[in-house]
Amino acid sequence: MVDDVTVDTITGNPVVSTDQDGTAHVQYVKLKFGPDDTFTIVQDGTGLPVTPFAAILEIGSTKIIDDDDTEVEEGGDLSATADLSLSGTKSGEILSFVLTSLVTSGGGAVATGKGTVMFFDADPNTTSGDPTLAAAGAEHLTMIGQVPVEADEWDADINGATLFKQVAIPFHALGTIFCVYRNTDSTTTWNNGAGDNQELHINVWYRRDS
Hints:
Elements: E1 5-6, E2 15-16, E3 18-20, E4 25-27, E5 32-33, E6 40-41, E7 56-58, E8 62-65, E9 77-78, E10 82-105, E11 115-120, E12 143-149, E13 155-157, E14 160-183, E15 197-208
C-alpha cells in the first residue's frame, strides 16, 4: 500500500507523513515537550525529561510510646498507633527499622525487653495500654507484617537503648503505614508510675517500587 496522504488546502497540497497498514493510514509524528507556547523536539541527545525517584527512603523517627501515655504493661499491652507517613502514595518493601528507648524525665530506668512490632495498612486505632486489637479480628486482617524483638537484642546504656532489625515486609500502594508495639515482656512496664517517663521511637527504611 502507498504511504502518506495529501491534505487539500486553499494554498496548496501539503503531504502528511503516514504509514498504511493495509486498511488505514497511521500518522507519523515527532514528539515535542515544553511549557505553553514553546517546545523542544525529542531527538538524539534531547530525550523526554524524566525525574527518577529515590530507591531507598527513610520515614524518620516516630513515637510509638510517648512519655505522657498511660502505662503499657507487661504481658501483652499495646501502644497507641503510630502513623508512618510515606509522603505520597507508594508501594515497596520495608527493609529495616530501629527502635529507640529513651527516658525523658523522672530518672526511671531505660525500658527494654521483649515485644512485637506490628505493621498495618489501615489504622487499627489503638490507644496506649489497650489489651488487645479490636473485637472480631477486623484489625488483624489489615496487618501486613509483624516482627518479634527479644530483650537481648537491645544495646543499652544509662541514657537510652537501640534495637536494629533487618526485615522484608512488602507493602502495596499506601500513603501511610501504621505501627503498633505489643509489650510481651514479663517484667517491663513502660511509663510505670508518675515519675517514670519513657518513650519508644521507631525509624523505618524502605525500598520504593512505585
